[in-house]
Amino acid sequence: MVRPWAKNASLALAASILVGTVVRARSVEAKAGFDSPYTLAQTYNTALRLVRVDMGLTITERDPTAAYLMFDYKSTENGQHAVPGSIEMLESGRSIKVVIQLSQMPRYHEQVMSDQLAKKLRDEYGEPAPRPAKRDAPDGGGEAGSSAAGE
Predict the structure, then answer these.
(1) Higher pLDDT, 7 or 69
(2) Alpha carbon 64 to chain centroid, angstroms
(3) In what order do the strands lie in the sheet with 58-63?
(4) Which of 1, 76, 88, 128 is placed for a possible disulfide with 37 were both Cys, Cβ 3.0 to 4.6 Å?
(5) 23-51 residue pLDDT tens
(6) Is the separation of the CB atoms in 100 and 113 below 8 Å?
(7) Which helix (H) or strand (E) holds 125?
(8) Is the dihedral of CA 10, 12, 15, 21 positive or negative?
(9) Residues 65-90: tens digit of each pLDDT
(10) For the residues of 42-71, what is the DSSP string, one character each?
(11) Cβ-contact 59, 81 below 8 angstroms
(12) Could you give the CA distance from residue 23 to residue 14 in angstroms, rounded to a whole number?
């Protein structure tokens, strides 16, 4: 005979495991970001200064060529415990896609950093210069067209 409280306890345990799995999966996927209209160099250098100088965080790894930073994130919510964080920058045509991840923190921490970086870029560089459109293939006009006409 199964006791009623044992059946309810089993259901509660299964539900808590399911909720824990969903919450953990959401925290890994959580990230904030924005499209930066500034150059990759401007965005990377500003992110580096934000993390190291403005926030006083320890940079654990960085690569300007691959355009990413990894750092130890600390906030008043997690006390002296540092959690890993990263900022990645990817060229995407006319802008730089910035992705900030603090997987062990609530999403609003990522959003606050994202907002701080966007503001710092505007404050330091002003309005961004228009970025030229990338050309997939050369147009028919240039030097090749004029030399053929001259022959």
Answers:
(1) 69
(2) 15
(3) 32-36, 95-101, 83-92, 68-73, 58-63
(4) 128
(5) 444 444 558 899 999 999 999 999 999 99
(6) yes
(7) helix 107-125
(8) negative
(9) 999 999 999 887 777 789 999 999 99
(10) HHHHHHHHIIIIIS-PEEEEEETTTTEEEE
(11) no
(12) 14
Using DSSP, state whether 12 is helix, strand or coil. Answer: helix
Packing angle of the helix pair 107-125, 40-49 (nearest 10 deg): 120
User: E strands of 1-123, at which residues?
Assistant: 32-36, 58-63, 68-73, 83-92, 95-101
Give the pTM.
0.67
Sign for the CA dihedral angle at 24, 79, 50, 128 comes to positive
Half-sphere exposure in the Cβ direction for 95 (13 Å, CA):
10
Joined together, the tokens standing for residue 35 give 């499209």
> What count of residues does the chain have?
151
